[in-house]
Structures are given as C-alpha cells and as structure tokens.
Amino acid sequence: MDIRALRYFLQVAEQLSFIRAAERLNISQPVVTKVISQLEHEIGSKLFDRTTRRVALTPAGAVLLKEVRPLIAHVEAVQQTVRHSVAERSGRFNVGYTTLAMQSVTPALLRSFRAEHPDVEVDVREMTTQAQIEALLSAEIDIGFVLTPVADELLTIVPVHRERLKLAVPDYHPHAASKHQRAPLSAFATDYFIIPPRSQFPAVYDEIIRACEVAGFRPRLKECGENQTCVGLARAGLGVVFMSGRVSDVSSEGLVFMDIEDPAPVMEIAVAWRTRDPSSLLSVFKENASINQLESFQ
After folding, report:
1. Would strands 121-126 and 92-97 be described as parallel, antiparallel, or unpaired?
2. CA 34, CA 29: separation in Å to the nearest integer?
C-alpha cells in the first residue's frame, strides 16, 4: 500500500470529513476521494460509509485505522533516521521553494544558512507548495518555503513574510492616472484578471478570487503559466495582473503598478520543517524564521 494513500486515509478517518481532510492536506477534495477509492479497491473493502450528511468508518476502516497510526509513525521515524544519517555524512541540505518565495524572503535566509554552514552543499528545488509538503513528509527535502495556508500536524509552519499584492495595469488604463493613490478593486471589475492556474499557486489563486468577491464581483479570468508571460499579456492590454515581490525587478514599460484599497489580496510565505526532525542544520532556519516572524508581523 502507498504510504501517501494511508496518510490521506488517516486524515479522513480522524476528521470524518473528506472536505476537512483535503483542507488539512492542502489539496483538492476530489483528489482525496480518488485516492481513498483506489485504496478501497486495493484492500477489497469499503473503508467509509458516506452520505450527504455524514462520513463514518466501516468495520474494515476501523481495523485499518488501528494499524495505520503506528505504521505511519514508524515509517516517519525510519525516514527521519535515515535522512539524518545521510545528511550528516554527505553534508547536503535539501531546500524546497516556490517562485514567489524566492522573489522575497528565501535568498536572505539561504545566505544566513550558507554563512554558518559554508561546507554544507545546499540543493534547492523549485516546487509547488503541495509538492513540498509531500517531500517534507517523505524526507526528500529538509525545509520548504511554502505559501500559506498550510496545516499538517507533523510539520512546523512559521510565517516569515506577508505582503499586499500590487496590480499591474496597462499604462493607458482609465485608472492608471491615479497610480499615486490606492484604487478600489471594484474599479477593475470589467477587466480580465491574468492569473496562474490554481494547480500551480492555489493559495494565491484563491486569495485573488476571495478579494474580488469581497469587493463585490466575480473576476473574469485569463490563465497563464509563467510570470513573465502574465506580465507580457498585461503589457499587451489583455488584462490586469497581481504582482508580488520587488516590482522594481519588472520593466515598467507599458505598465503602471498600483496599490489597491482593502480588500486587497495578500500573499503569505512560511518556512516549514518536520517537527521531530533532529537535524542540527535546521537551527539556523529556526532561529531566523522566529526573528523574521517577529519583524514581519508586528
């Protein structure tokens, strides 16, 4: 049986809700449902009785739950022991990050780590938030820079950076003339919002949708994959795009970067690591994460 499927089963069994389990796993509910169905097929028995009102464990599900808790704890202990031993001997430290994290807080924290551990080889990998969570739980990476919200009882999640997103609009947009003032988000209700797919940045995607709905409208969306492509589409007048990080790094040719009145979408980045990881190499990140948390959230 796939350990990932057993983790999904454990969350559903503890929450007795596919929706709440999906929220804790930071994935979509249909994915959880599909994985549980595959697990039931593999075992040859239903694990949950499901109605529109409730979810309950079947007798087979209750037996599996009793076996799964110590099994997952044992697997995680083995993974951590092996990873710790390999890391200590190889002098390698594996870091996951999202593109948005690397545009903001990640470089400074990596510099601090390199200054204290110059002999350690740092392997950095660009990954989605969900991929980082799974990689942390399987001990493939040691620390991750993720977009919140994230919740997993096996991980420590410390927010280290929070910022309001700016809106990049074509320089001939009717509201571009007010670039030195905050504009209401509702002023752009008739524009297309250029946005990365939810599968790529679910937290940012959901936050933009939420802010628009609070502002009184459902945004018209135009999805694009790469940040530079999204900016190019806005420069071409095909929509507006929310920007994070240092907008000074983006050419302003044909664009105006605008502050938005509340409700403005907000991006939050956190550092994540396995709570019971014994690695001494984590100490730099833990200390710096605590400092940055105080500075960013005063």
Report:
1. parallel
2. 9
Q: In the chain, which ranges are continuous DSSP H helix?
A: 3-15, 18-25, 29-43, 59-90, 99-102, 106-116, 129-137, 202-214, 227-235, 283-296
Q: Which pLDDT band holds residue 297 (cuts at 50, 70, 90)?
A: very low
The whole-model pTM stands at 0.65
Cβ atoms within 10 Å, residue 259: 14
Burial of 257 (0-12, 13-18, 19+ CB in 10 A): middle
Mean of the pLDDT values across residues 212-239?
89
Structure tokens at 154: 């096996």
Q: Is the pLDDT of residue 295 over 80?
A: no
At 275 the pLDDT is 86
Burial of 265 (0-12, 13-18, 19+ CB in 10 A): buried
Q: In the structure encoding, which two tokens stand for residue 220, read together?
A: 């018209």
Task: Using alpha carbons, list the distances in angstroms from residue 204 to 103, 148, 253.
Answer: 14, 9, 25
Please give the DSSP secondary-structure letter assigned to residue 219.
P
Q: Identify the residue whose tokens are 């947009």.
A: 173
* Other Cβ atoms within 10 Å of 216 Cβ, number: 11
% the chain with pLDDT above 70 = 89
- The CB density around residue 90, as the number of other CB atoms within 10 Å, is 10
State the average pLDDT over residues 100-126.
Answer: 87
Backbone torsions φ then ψ of 158, nearest 5 degrees: -120, 110
For residue 71, CA distances in Å to 74, 118, 269 come to 5, 37, 32
